[in-house]
Amino acid sequence: MAEAASTSFDDTNNALHVSNSADKSKAGGKLKKSLHARHLNMIAIGGAIGTGLFLASGGTIAGAGPGGALLAYGAIGVMVYFLMQSLGEMATYCPASGAFEVYASRYVSKSFGFAQGWNYWYNWAITVAAELVAAAIVMQYWVPADVVPPWIWSAGFLAFLFILNAFTVRGFGESEFWFAAIKVIAVIAFLILGVLMIFGILGGPSPGFGNWAIGEAPFVNGFWGIMGVFMIAGFSFQGTEMIGIAAGETDEPEKNVPRATRAVFYRILLFYIGAIAVIGFLLPYTEPSLLQSATADTSTAEGLTQAVTTSPFTLVFERAGIAGASAVMNAIILTSILSAGNSGVYVSTRMLYALAKERKAPKLFAKVTKHGVPLAALIATCLVGAACFATSRIGSGTVYVWLVNASGLAGFITWMGIAWSHYKFRRAFRAQGHDLSELPFKAPWYPAGPLIALGMCAVVVVGQSLDIIRSDFSFLQFFSIYLGLFLFLGIWIGHKIVTRSPKVHPQDADLSRHA
């Protein structure tokens, strides 16, 4: 009787489990695997090539010289390489729209995953608001604010981004493909024209290596100059991790994710290193415009215009004889802003959806349309983005500034989470008796790769306070720099206190291949 009762109890539990799973699936629905390899490549490239490359690259050369800037970007490139390999291994093994939130929950702890997920969501939700502000400022280059109020442009762009994401994931994929393609074409054109000018084929005599030997070049301001660029170069590559989010809606992830991981890294590195090298050959680090483009106040129409007209891209295009170079660069920058906003809406929506699927957010956000779009999560994300944008229009915009500060280090927190999750994933994989040959894609350099990336990210995070520590210390400034880190730690610790979730031991980690 005891045995029969036990069997009956198990069967009942199984039936309940199946029923609950079915209900959950019905309520949550499924995303569609409609993204292809070309979409995956461009999503990551588009996320990493932003206004920073077009406007701030000159400042890196002014601060560290051409050699110092190349060295700093090369070092960051190594870090990103390790991170992409780590993410590629996990995303190929278990493609999930929650990506690093899912991996952190399974391999580190549920509380760590909870904090990672919400950190990534609010980072990109706030970024969407920042892009709306920037887009309105760019439009003032063509249409003055007294003709069309800036908020109308922002509202229109938000509606546009919502429409791109509201119907199918393919709509996002195609739009982002072409947004990113415009940026890629601009960078390739810059590199080609730059090389022609370096060899004296276009734009006058060849500058040779003259700009690499002027003054303190090629390494300006020594070690601290390189470290200064290293501290900001990492921000330029943020967005490459979007591959992990998009993997959950990509067809044939075992083939496409590793391919995209490798291809995207090398292409982005080529674009950044190539652009820095071209600028270093054509413009001396003492060129006043280099610093002006990087330090101009882009929160105003006048400041953005100054940044664009003194951008090294604009200067090179003008020397190559391209008419209306400033207008062309404004159009490219507007495309970059819309691309970043489009990607931000997509990844934050998918992260909110994933959190809801994991019961870490209201279950309403796990519902999807028949076309596989988590519409409730999309609406909520756009409303939060709109609310954050509204704070920029209230008073002096102090609330908006603090919101932006809260997202300042979120990207590096995500990267550190990826590295640590991969380290724990591989340990769990071996502890549970699996052979590495079972992995569809194996990241090289383990365990050194993720640990080096983790350490380098930590250096960047700590180094953000370098200037205020070396000068007059300001607690308010220190707090504003690390607000995002404090917020992340608060969410992590708070969730752990409330739920008492333990850390995941390697033997107990969930190594199932589906989220």
Describe this structure in words.
Mean pLDDT is 88; it is low at 1-27. This protein is mainly α. Helix 2 packs across helix 7 (169-198) and helix 6 (150-166) runs antiparallel to helix 15. The chain is built from 21 helices and no strands. The longest helix is centred in the N-terminal third of the chain and has 43 residues, at 51-93. It has a single domain (37-452), classed as Amino acid/polyamine transporter I (Up-down Bundle), CATH 1.20.1740.
CATH class: Mainly Alpha
Tell me the CATH superfamily: Amino acid/polyamine transporter I
Structural class: mainly alpha
Gyration radius (Cα, Å) is 24 Å
Kindly identify the CATH topology: Amino acid/polyamine transporter I
Main sheet record: none
Helix content: over 70%
Features:
single chain; 515 residues; mainly alpha; Amino acid/polyamine transporter I; 21 helices; globular; disordered N terminus; transport
Summary of the model, kept short:
The chain has 515 residues and is mainly alpha-helical. The chain has helices at residues 2-28, 37-48, 51-93, 100-107, 110-139, 150-166, 169-198, 222-236, 242-246, 253-282, 288-295, 301-309, 312-319, 325-357, 375-391, 398-406, 410-431, 448-463, 466-470, 475-481, 483-499. The protein has a single domain, classed as Amino acid/polyamine transporter I.
